[in-house]
Structures are given as C-alpha cells and as structure tokens.
Design goal:
Layout (H helix, E strand, L loop, with lengths): L1 H8 L1 H24 L9 E2 L2 H18 L13 E3 L5 E3 L2 E2 L15 H37 L1
Antiparallel strand pairs: 1-4, 2-3
Helix pairs in contact: 2-4
Length: about 150
C-alpha cells in the first residue's frame, strides 16, 4: 500500500516512537510526584539511553535495508514493542539521588518537576512535528483526488 509505505519510510514512524516513549515516561514521572509522601517509595524513570539506542539501531537498520523497509524496534532489557509497534516499558529505580529520607523515600520533587517539564516539551515538539507530517500527507492526498 502506497500510504503505508510513505508513513513507515519517513519520519512519521520515528516521531510516533518518540511520542509513545514520552507518554509512557510522563506516567512514570507523575507516579513519582504522586507518591512523594509514600513511605518506602523509590523514584523511577524510563531508561532514556536504552530507548535512544534502540531507536538509533532501528533507524540504521531501516536505512541499510532499503527505502521500503519498516522501522523495526527491537526489544531491550526494559523496553518491549508489541506487533502493532506499541511500547511496553519496565521502569527502573533511580539510585542517583543517594539520599534517603527518614521514611526511606529518595524523592526530590523539584528534580521530578523539571524532568517532567523537559519530557513534556519533547513530547509536544514530537507531536507537533508528527501533526505536520500528517497534514502534509493529507494535503498530498486531497490535492491528488481533486
């Protein structure tokens, strides 16, 4: 199918992966903030370097396979993709804070809020770029039909 080829070949597939990752990460960061007062709660995050590595390998693999190749995301230790390309993640505990409070919680709300703001900006940029790609496809399709 021509339309599927256009979507899978271009930046649309990459942007969809970025949007999916930032959405999943947002849920983890919200959990961190909502559990600020939970005794024994450990701050979690998604492994960004692992995602970037998997995405880079998928892009390289697609480029080596030819123009019609799909973006194939390979599972990693904490990241898995189902047959539809949907991301399933396993959050990891963040140990870099090094300080445990009296209730054994390693929270830093300001850091979590800053991380969430950066993640939201990345999500919004990727979503806007994705929207632009779909608008270009829509314009190309409607112009062709008229």
């Amino acid at each position: 199918m021509i339309l599927e080829g256009l979507i899978n070949r271009g930046s649309v597939a990459v942007l969809e992966q970025v949007v999916g990752f930032t959405e999943a990460r947002h849920h983890v960061l919200v959990d961190n903030i909502s559990n600020f007062d939970t005794v024994g709660y450990k701050v979690k995050d998604l492994p960004q370097a692992e995602f970037v590595g998997a995405l880079t390998k998928a892009i390289d693999g697609r480029e080596n396979a030819g123009a019609a190749a799909r973006l194939e995301m390979r599972p990693t230790r904490h990241l898995k993709w189902d047959q539809n390309g949907k991301l399933h993640v396993q959050p990891v505990e963040i140990r870099e804070n090094n300080i445990l409070f009296h209730d054994q919680n390693n929270r830093f709300v300001e850091k979590q809020m800053a991380t969430m703001a950066k993640n939201a900006m990345l999500h919004n940029v990727a979503a806007e770029l994705l929207k632009g790609q779909y608008n270009l496809l829509k314009m190309a399709i409607t112009e062709r039909l008229q």
